[in-house]
Amino acid sequence: MTSPVPLQSITKPIECIAADTFAVPAASSPPQDFQTRLAMLRALFPALALTLCLCLPSGKAAAQDQRDLQSILQTEAEEVASPGRRSVGSVIDALVASELPQAPEFLQRWSEREVLQRTTDGLFFYGTREGDSYALTDLSTGEPAGSAPASEIEEIRPNGGVRRVIASALVQFQLSDPIEARRIEALDSIARNPSADQLEPLLASIEDEPSPRIRARKEELAGMLAATFGDTPEERIAAISALSDGVSVQIRAVLNQILSTRSEVGTEIPEGTNIARELTPGDDLTRDDAYARLVSEDLAPEIQSRDQLKAALTANIDGGTVGGVPIGALDTEEARARAYETLAAAGTIPRLVTEEDVDAALASHVFFEAYDEDDPAITDAARAALNEVETRVAVHQVADLALDAVSLASIYFLAAIGLAITFGVMGVINMAHGEFIMMGAYTGYVVQQIIPDYTVSLIVALPLAFAVTFAAGVAMERLVIRWLYHRPLETLLATFGISIALQQLAKNIFGTQARPLTSPSWLEGAWVVNDVIGIANIRIAIFVLALIFLALILFILKRTRVGLEVRAVTQNPGMAASMGINPERINMLTFGLGSGIAGIAGVAIGLYAQVTSEMGANYIVQSFMTVVVGGVGNVWGTLAGASLIGVLQKGIEWMNPSNTLAAQTYMILFIILFIQVRPKGIVALKGRAAGD
Amino acid sequence: MTRKTFLTENRSVFWFLLSLGVFALIITVLADGSGNGMISTSFVKTLGRTLCLMLVAIAMDVVWGYTGILSLGHMAFFGLGGYMIGMWLMYARTEIVLTASLNAAPIPPTPEEIHDAIGSQIFGLVGSSEFPAIWYFAPSLPAQLALVVLVPGVLALVFGWLAFRSRVTGVYLSILTQAMTLALSLYLFQNDSGLRGNNGLSGLQNIPGLGDVPQSHLSIAFFWASAVALGAGYVLFAWVVSGKMGSVIRGVRDNESRVRFLGYHVESYKLFIFTLTGIVSGIAGALYYPQAGIINPNEIAPIASIYLAVWVAIGGRGRLYGAAIGAAVVSLLSSWFTGGSAPDVNLGIYTIQWTDWWLVLLGLSFVAVTLLAPKGIGGLFDLIGNRHPVPATSSTAAGPDLGARRTVEGEEEK
């Protein structure tokens, strides 16, 4: 690349020219948004000139530089002043050929009706009206060029057709813009609003595209445009077949667009129609819908609704009887039908449409869907491509679902592992476990109020949440649970009492509205593989956190003295005590550890869900399910339970995407049935350790 | 030696029925409906509802205090009973209102027309006008009354059969019943469940066909109906838990394996108790909700069932009158504290408002009762009469493990 510095000087404002010739009106500042756009365009010129210079012989470029914008415009002055949709091409071609750096700005402002012509000498300016006069700006330099009375100025107002032509000419400038963001923006705008005339500039810009990423994007977009707007059917079919490699939403939209159908009905299928499928009333569409379609096409009379029937009868009451039936007897459907038929036979009202009429009408018509595209070869190719794409999308969706399920499983694992440990070791179900989760989340919230840096506050909050809930857990064990060993059901209720007290306490302190726990910026955003597969960074972080805790808990249980003692107490408290282990101490530590992990889980959950006093209650039942399904007293069991529940919940949600309530209902039903098969969970303790 | 009869064996039945009758009479005399106006109609309704809660609490006591199954699902049966009667109440009342308006038209309405109009009236709120299949019996009072018994009964039977046959016990069983309750309430929260989603059924206090009877009289009638149901339930359960049946279920509570080894089919006993109490809960619900006027899925949420356990625990498990007293005391105190009529306590730096702090107090006092007074309020009666429900056994014949030995019924040795 040559240095852009010398070229930049071309657009540098030459202040002296305008400044001493004309007085500058003080209040001529254009609106803010326009200024930004202008700045953007200005930034674009030097680099644009550079690109153009690079792809052309330098001698020619030097020669072209001699001409200025005004003189080019003057050669086509009439066409510039009153552009027509068909003829404006010559001006644009001339501007493009000139490769002047000011050309894009001119095109832009021309189409936005900001270009004026001074009738006295026929010169063009940019300008804005100020009272009776116009403030003029020179086209080439962008400097003020004095003002002119309104009588000497003609505003140039290109019509909509011309503006479209200009806009698509601008696209090719943008597509070759040296700033990547601008090129991507241009591609985005094409993707949003594809049209036939964008295809050529797009194809032209592919060759010189320096970035491989954008190049790929351009090729993809060109393929999509070619599939819709290609000149010959062969060209389109080739482009359509090429599309079958992708999964993106745009590709699917393009293919669906080609495959768009209209529903039609007639006595027979017209010759030369590209039929998507024929519809049989009763199978592909209901009888009522089919008949309603006939009615809307005026091919059959409307079926009288009960209200219409009643209104018709009411309108024909004749001295206490309707069609010979006394009014009092009209309280059954049969009597009404009889009265109606009498009236219809007399010709007073239209005949009643009977079931037989409906059947006959349906039998004498065909219902079909016809492609908007007339060429069957193209629709067949598109159908084949779409099927291929959809198969691939389905595979990717499964992968995406698996990611979601893994992230959900990590959350359940974090929420349930503490519960599982305490249940395994002490046989105690802690109903306040959900409130420990909440306590951890509120700890994170409070830390964020004190430490404004989100990264630091998160680093502080995690151990602090552990410490707070560890202390709360130990306190609860010492004060309450210790007295209730051998009475597991009463522990369940006592911890429930603590749970409602803690929940209400949190409500009294923090209020009922949800408190945000903001994640640091590096956790925002998502890991996006393609349009189908993607997962939020925060969920990846929770997955990592769950892995860390899995490793940590396994290490503590399998490699440390405390872990050995915990396992001993889990298996047989009496025997463990005989071997010199203090079960009370182990119980206390275990309960603290379980509660502490709940606190950590609370911070993690709070990062992506709202922190409320009821958040623990939302997770407690799922945590119970995880423990019950996984089996008690085993880390791997909890992991298996969390995975099963995570996969199951996502799977059910996928099958019934509109309804998460139904998904949860079915999941719980499944768990109740699962317990039938494995009452002790997936990983059950065996032998004496299993107890009763 | 006097002859043993049901009443002499269960003297609490006599005292309970006596005090219930006296209480009902006093309320009737003082109520607004009988012209005295010392007790407002809404308070009579509150008392009537409390009687229904006492009935479900007794059922809960039988299943938990006597059989040892901590069910967290009995309020779901209670709610289902309410839904079943609510369907008829809502259908019949809408029918009366709509028939009147349709009769004003020049042509008399047909049955189909009325049925469709009721459908769009009831389900317009959830964007539908078709009657779901479960409303098939709604026009018929006898059918819905049968469903009040059948729906909770069948659900309890099926769930109990599944749970007990796989020998799910203890804490596991509690969690499973809680899951069932949660599944049911989540299901009912959906609009397409056919029971109007989270709107629930409303206007249940208007009894069809009794539009001319003032609410003050209706409230007395429902109060008496609740009192009679409570009395009958008390006698029924007192009979169930006495005699041989009672001994077996208490055995199941204290040591299920041992009872099984003695040759009893434990599952059948548990299933019978679970289903029977489920049905009684449904009946209690069917009496409760016409007095409450509205039912929605929130009433079925697991928390309601846990509160039921709290009432029974505070009142005292293992004695029917304890559970009844617990339900009455806690639910009335609850409405007193949360209703804003309890005076605030000014501590100088902080004023305790009971609407905010009642749940904290309830939670902590519940923990305290569990820890310090496991017999609950019912235990106070032991102090008065210095009685022991079961005489202490000799302490030498302890069983093979800690859990087996009992000196006081229902209490394990430390």
Give me some keywords for this one.
heterodimer, A: 692 residues, 4 domains, three-stranded antiparallel sheet, B: 414 residues, mainly alpha, two-stranded antiparallel sheet, 4 strands, globular
Short description:
Chain B: The chain crosses the membrane at residues 12-31, 43-64, 71-91, 145-164, 171-189, 220-241, 268-289, 295-313, 320-337, 357-377. The complex is a heterodimer of chains A (692) and B (414). Chain A has 692 residues and is α+β, with helices and mostly antiparallel strands.
Helix/strand layout:
The complex is a heterodimer of chains A (692) and B (414).
Chain A lengths: L4 H7 L3 H7 L10 H23 L3 H8 L3 H7 L1 H5 L7 H10 L4 H9 L3 E4 L5 E7 L2 E5 L6 E6 L3 E3 L4 H16 L4 H13 L6 H8 L5 H18 L3 H11 L5 H10 L2 E6 L8 E5 L7 H10 L9 H10 L5 E2 L2 E2 L6 H13 L9 H9 L2 E6 L4 H51 L6 H18 L3 H26 L8 H23 L15 E3 L5 E3 H23 L1 H11 L1 H6 L4 H26 L6 H16 L4 H21 L4 H18 L15
Antiparallel strand pairs in A: 1-2, 1-5, 2-3, 3-4, 6-10, 7-10, 8-9, 11-12
Chain B lengths: L5 H4 L1 H20 L10 H26 L7 H30 L7 H13 L17 H25 L4 H20 L11 E2 L12 H27 L1 H12 L1 H6 L4 H27 L1 E2 L6 H14 L4 H19 L6 E2 L4 E2 L1 H19 L6 H7 L29
Antiparallel strand pairs in B: 1-2, 3-4
